[in-house]
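Budget justification note: compute hours in this period were largely spent on complex prediction jobs such as the one shown. Inputs:
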Amino acid sequence: MTFNELGLSEKVLQAVVASGYTTPTPIQAQAIPHALAGRDILGIAQTGTGKTAAFTLPMLSRLESGRARARMPRTLILEPTRELAAQVEESFIKYGVNHKLNVALLIGGVSFADQETKIMRGADVLIATPGRLLDFSERGKLLLTGIEILVIDEADSMHYMGFIPDIERICKLVPFTRQTLFFSATMPPEITRLTETFLHNPVRIEVARASSTASTITQGLIASHSGGAKRETLRRTIRDAENLKNAIIFCNRKRDVAILHKSLQKHGFSAGALHGDMDQRARTASLDAFKNGEVALLICSDVAARGLDIPDVSHVFNFDMPTHAEDYVHRIGRTGRAGKSGTAYSIVTRADQRYIDDIEKLITRKIEWFGPTLGELPASTSTDDEEQPRGRGRRERSPSRGREPREHREPREARAPRPVDEAQPVVQEAAPAPAPRAPREEQQPRRTDGRRPEGRTREPRPEARPEPRRVEARPDNRNDQRPNARRHRDDDDTPVIGLGDHIPSFLLRPVKLKPLKVGSED
Ligand code: AMP
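Corresponding output:
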């Protein structure tokens, strides 16, 4: 099949030839003739399949007749992110070189005034993110009653980002008779409901199973402990990766993107970041730097990276395992595009096992382990590892750690181990987890009832006195207080019982302790 057979206009065909494309991709071959015929389309296709051209090319052909009026765009394309919107604009510029069409972009994070000027001029194609579009519409600066074609792209992303109510509102603002081209990589129930409500007798085109991952991608799991050990695993994986040219690294949270970005830079990696809290200028600069090869690693959140067309990404790393199995498919789809080979490694901790199960169920295949499996992972020696008993112990001991969100703790730990961290191995070596913790837990009620400290100060028992190393003589007869355990307490920031090891000098006066002959110690 060639592009000539699809029914596209001469101007569009010339632009396609100029782009260097000779053969339509499956989604293009199947969708374009129906789109040109005015049918609604439900396209189930991942990014990388050529779906942007599948709606851009027929739209351009159809827009050749007619003109846009001020404030009344003729076609509307909804995208979940600003980057995707900008990417679609680029497609219109590329394939629309032979057309004199006005293309307007309505995205958040940039000035209203410039966007308004474009809308006032009359837009043939309006590419928008839902929030900014509704802003314009509510201010009366935009009328959607002239929309002939509505494109909803990356519908499942919109769903995950909470845009479905906005989409429903927008669908009610555009004429009932418009043509709708609807694309989604996956079809969760909410998306199916949306298509049943807003599409009219659509042609359903599914180019690859929504759950499929490209066969050109080598996938691997790398077991790791969490916390700082995980960043260490990532660094090692990056260093060891074969043929790594550039990589997108995914984190589940925006804050973690920023943290990992700083950490990688600190370790000398060429890295940029992309997440939703960055302003638009910074996002564009990061993306451009990665596309131009100025930075080799781009650390991203899902939202920022979904659907981006960045050719030639050699590796994808999941620093965090995605919690939605579909996101795994999207993420690793950033590499191995257009028939090229790619590699996707996921760094997984014990807490991720259920996500691995979900993903393997979705993609109906097992992902290979590179190195030890989670079960074979040697015990962590890292003080950061929160899966280890010592991690729990540390959090219990240090109230500040318990209060502070993990994301905010990590960079500090990455910069320099804190004193408590230095003490930690001693604690671990000296006392297996359950043994030392039991008496520590018992301390709490004693501390709060107030009776024991009072008793001690009023009537110190001779055994409680001076010699810090005579631990067997402590009032509660804790004969587990070995020297190492004592160091544990010394490094501890838990409030001490009564006077703890500090004995005021008046209690040590020899006169009161004559019978025991300890006066010489004072
Ligand atoms: P998309 O799925 O729209 O993000 O497109 C993925 C990539 O495939 C983009 O870089 C397009 O430029 C490229 N592409 C689109 N159509 C074709 C085609 N017919 N032949 C080769 N590459 C294409």
